[in-house]
Write a structure and sequence with these properties.
Elements: E1 2-8, H1 12-26, E2 31-34, H2 39-45, H3 51-59, E3 62-67, H4 82-92, E4 97-103, H5 116-119, E5 123-129, E6 141-145, E7 148-152, H6 159-174, E8 179-184, H7 190-202, E9 210-215, H8 216-225, E10 232-235, H9 237-249, E11 258-262, E12 268-272, H10 289-301, H11 306-321, E13 324-325, E14 335-336, H12 339-349
Parallel strand pairs: 1-2, 1-3, 3-12, 5-10, 8-9, 8-10, 13-14
Antiparallel strand pairs: 4-5, 4-11, 6-7, 11-12
Nicotinamide-adenine-dinucleotide (NAD) binds at residues 11, 15, 67-70, 83, 86, 254-255, 271, 274-280, 286-287, 290, 326, 328.
Length: 350
């Protein structure tokens, strides 16, 4: 069980240290090796995704990533920007399935912009296809036609692309409450009619999972009207981009949100949904929970260690119930702690 650990920039090293300590405390014998990615990698080697990191990432079973980027690298040529490192590793590892849970712990219900009763206890998972759709379709561009500028993109999916993301979503639903909602726009777009057809064809292979379909406009509305009706949602790259951000923001606390991107063999890249937070880097105040919860996703999806994953998630619930909060989720009446204290509390709660 080899893990490639990429702390990255900004708060990355601080939050990663806590996640690594939690993994070590589980005593499962992971082999962890650390490498450079992002701005730090540019400074040390001239490249945001150096060859040594690529070798390690390819050889590992999973990659755990902090965050990359910072203002000091924003003026570099595009090829050397830290974000290029991220795109590089995602592409090289063939990560086509993006899993983003949106969980709102009852203790944090006030952090949401929605009424607490609408969101308290929310626990949904958005499965987004990551390597196809209109974001990658050819032809694309901006041209001049008939004396005016003309912009165009191409939406397409093959049935095998839809089937493989469908399988990830059905399997994920199996590990949860066994309800899957597939989101499309079949009333207007043929590509998504095919999406719906293929999802429907897959359903008999998963008789224990209840499949439903929803149009994307309605899904966007239902997410803010009654989000707790959903368990797992699956959708294409573009709709997923928008819906996963919408869903995650229902929780209101960016420091709490993990994510996973998987390849065909469930090898994955696991990272918090937030960035490198340069404004608080080095101060010891960042919330490490999104990274710790990303490690829990790694246990579940790559290593099939459901029990260990649940132990970590329950430990996080316990520290929240104890009233411990980093600055980003702090409210009057709770105890403000730093990054390290929060990590230590999670380990103690294990
Ligand atoms: P950000 O997510 O880094 O920060 C947004 C706000 O949330 C900031 O106020 C920050 O302090 C706060 N925040 C984020 N994570 C937190 C945590 N764990 N605990 C407490 N507070 C937290 O987004 P940004 O400011 O737009 O971007 C900063 C840098 O991060 C940029 O260079 C950007 O390119 C990069 N970035 C990287 C990733 C990634 O590595 N996947 C994702 C997004 C942005």
């Amino acid at each position: 069980m080899k893990i490639c650990v990429l702390p990255g920039d900004g708060i990355g090293p601080e939050i990663m240290a806590e996640a690594v300590k939690v993994l070590e405390a589980l005593g499962l014998g992971f082999e962890m090796e650390t490498a450079l990615l992002g701005g730090g990698a540019v400074d040390a080697t001239g490249a945001p995704y150096p060859e040594a990191t690529s070798r390690l990432a390819r050889a590992a079973d999973a990659v755990l990533l902090g965050a990359v980027g910072g203002p000091q690298w924003d003026t570099l040529p595009r090829e050397q920007r830290p974000e290029r490192g991220l795109l590089g590793i995602r592409k090289e590892l063939g990560l086509f399935a993006n899993l983003r849970p949106a969980i709102l712990y009852p203790e944090l219900a006030n952090a949401s912009s929605l009424k607490p009763e609408v969101v308290a206890g929310l626990d949904i998972l958005i499965v987004r296809e990551l390597t196809g759709d209109i974001y990658f379709g050819q032809p694309r561009g901006i041209e001049t036609r008939n004396g005016e500028r003309y912009g165009f993109n191409t939406m397409h999916y093959t049935e095998s692309e839809i089937r493989r993301i469908g399988r990830v979503a059905f399997e994920a639903a199996r590990k949860r409450n066994k309800r899957l909602c597939s989101v499309d726009k079949m009333n207007v777009l043929e590509t998504t009619q095919l999406w719906r057809d293929v999802m429907t064809e897959l359903a008999p292979e998963y008789p224990d999972v209840e499949l439903s379909h929803m149009l994307v406009d309605n899904a966007a509305m239902q997410l803010v009207r009654a989000p707790k009706q959903f368990d797992v949602m699956v959708t294409g790259n573009m709709f997923g981009d928008i819906l996963s951000d919408e869903a995650s923001m229902l929780t209101g606390s960016i420091g709490m949100l993990p994510s996973a991107s998987l390849d065909e063999n469930n090898k994955g890249l696991f990272e918090p949904s937030h960035g490198s937070a340069p404004d608080i880097a080095g101060k010891g105040v960042a919330n490490p929970l999104a990274t710790i919860l990303s490690a829990a996703m790694m246990l579940r999806y790559t290593f099939n260690q459901e029990e260990a994953a649940a132990r970590v998630e329950n430990a996080v619930k316990k520290v929240l119930a104890q009233g411990l909060r980093t600055g980003d989720i702090h409210e009057p009446g709770t105890t403000r702690v730093g990054t390290r204290e929060m990590g230590d509390a999670v380990r103690a709660a294990l």
